[in-house]
Fold:
Amino acid sequence: MPRLSAQTLYALRNYINIDRLITQLQIPTQPLNAMMRFQCPLCAHFHTATHPNTNLARCFDCRKNLNTIELVMAVHHTPFLKAVAWLQQYEKSLTDSSGTTQSQRVLPKRRATPNPNPLATHSTDGKAKPAQQPASKIATSNLITIKQILNKR
Ligand SMILES: [Zn+2]
Structure:
């Protein structure tokens, strides 16, 4: 499961437009006095309003403010983490075309690369030398190796 930073949760609560989310969640709405009223997922009444400044959906009957995460939890009847995962997926679908939130995902890749290299050079140094020596040195310097063998005997 991916880690949820405070920054991630803040972004989900504030940068996903609450009105667009209500449309995305297919919550029934009613236009009333030039205001968009959505059906409260908790009490099913339309005595509601959304606040663009705070990005909250308020139900006056429940006397509750719902942020984006709480709204998904109420509509989908899912726990917090599943609502967050759903919103991250939804945010991805929004940002894939514009590509604004990709800078954060570059960092983990740098840690992975230095580790395999020392292991690889150590293991190939030990294994590669005995395999390469007969192929290259015997072919190019047959006389030297024969003389060395003769001298040793
Ligand atoms: Zn309500």
User: Anything to note?
Assistant: Residues 6-151 form a domain with the DNA Primase; Chain A fold (CATH 3.90.580.10).
